Structures
1.
Amino acid sequence: MLFRILGKDEFRRLVELLLAEHEVVGPKRIDTAGDGRPIHQFLPVDSFADLDLGYESTDISAKTYFLPFRETLSAWRFRDRDWTQEISYRRHPRVIVGLHACDINALLKLDKVLARDCFPSPYYLARRKNTVIIGIDHPPCSGGFCHSLGTDTVTRGFDLFLTDLGDRYFAAIDSDRGFSLLQLVATSEATDQDSADYLAARKRTVAAFGPDLEMKEIPNLMDIEFDSPVWQRWGEKCLSCSSCAMVCPTCYCYGVQEEVAMDFSSGVKVKQLYSCCIFDFATVAGGHNFRPRRETRLKYRYYHQHRGFMEIFDEPKCVGCGRCSRVCLAGINPPDIIRDLLAGEERP
Ligand code: SF4
Ligand code: SF4
């Protein structure tokens, strides 16, 4: 990993240079919640001033720029006793500025499933390869538990990652692209003092996290507590709305359907994100539903996050961003469920 020191004015100039040629997406303040909390969203920006790099979190993750809620996979048309098919991938370069470490870690997890598995998704790959990521370090956000999962730091998966040292940024470079970007502006070598300031800034950030959740036992506990009343208690609250999965930066379940014109002359194959919390998620041909109960669906969502993914990739799928907790109208949240599982409950 290479490190450079980037002045704040130079960073601004870099973003302005990028804006001149590319779509730039970043955290933009869009509203204020009832409790006074600012609401941010990753949106295309027109100027550096639109970016609010001091944001705490966004309600919706940046997953949508890699795995949109709905996308057309292919379109076909019959004409003159022949047919044609169109398949297109996004090739336009995009820059995302201001991703936090947990969200970059989330992309690394999506990469494992969508970019490196036996059947990589060319749609995902096209977006991932054509997106420049400039991440930024930040203090803990409320409801987040990334430190418990080790996702509060990131060492790859980005082009540049900035740590605020007050009057300048400590910039980690993780790609040729990131290196080339820094050639566009003035930077300097990181001195011993810069490195010491960076380590001190990291120490302050880590110290600001509350006590960690004990995550090591969770994968085993998931099996041991398979019939725990914890699932029923939390499941009874679940509205099966799927908001948690939609905002989650690592949930990728989807369905594919064909939409055909009434005269059968054309059609499109559409992919749409889906969620394991929705009533018919496990319904199969013939109508049998393997998970008709809310608590079972909720349980399996947590199983995928903390047991199933672990089994395949040796790490949990959850990055502890806390978005599912913030969006859930029923107050269902991973830290409380994990604490309840760790505490254990008498079976009836
Ligand atoms: S856990 Fe909360 S957000 Fe998720 S489906 Fe249930 S009610 Fe909706
Ligand atoms: S499960 Fe919740 S806390 Fe974990 S990554 Fe998804 S949204 Fe974030």
2.
Amino acid sequence: MFKKPVTEAYPNAPKVTAPRFHGRHQLNRHPDGLEKCVGCELCAWACPADAILVEGAQNTEEERFSPGERYGRVYEINYLRCILCGLCIEACPTRALTMTNEFELADDSREALIYEKKDLLAPLLPGMEQPPHPMRLGNDERDYYMAEAAAPPRPEGAVYNAGHPKGSSGSFFNRKEAG
Ligand code: SF4
Ligand code: SF4
């Protein structure tokens, strides 16, 4: 009653969300570019809306996508079903899956609202390399994770992808962590 009225100018001006707003998901990477997802399907089992499809596959030394034994070969989120509750990111054991602040998800076709792995993967940051490739941080998993723990912190869960290929232009939302 005694507060000044707040006028939102959206969509002409960016809408600022709460820092931990649950927006579009993102699949994160390790510092060398390998994927954090191990294809365990725990996110899909946790989802009350049956919105996630995961199919895991085995890494090989010739074709490695993640540092562990397995990786997520197929990963899809159906935003026609998703209620952005965040239970999937709570279930993820590797912090592979986080949520961004991006909320402009409306579209005019059903196909466009099914986000595939290529739409959800975080882009490569400096120092990262497009998988498949060998583990660059250590010769075995122990060395790899020790080296990762010693590395400077990275903006995990950041909205890296302004100008995202799906949905909105993303231009307002290349801001920060929401995971
Ligand atoms: S946010 Fe909720 S509804 Fe959406 S995919 Fe995750 S668990 Fe399912
Ligand atoms: S995103 Fe996380 S919970 Fe889902 S399959 Fe990948 S590692 Fe498992």
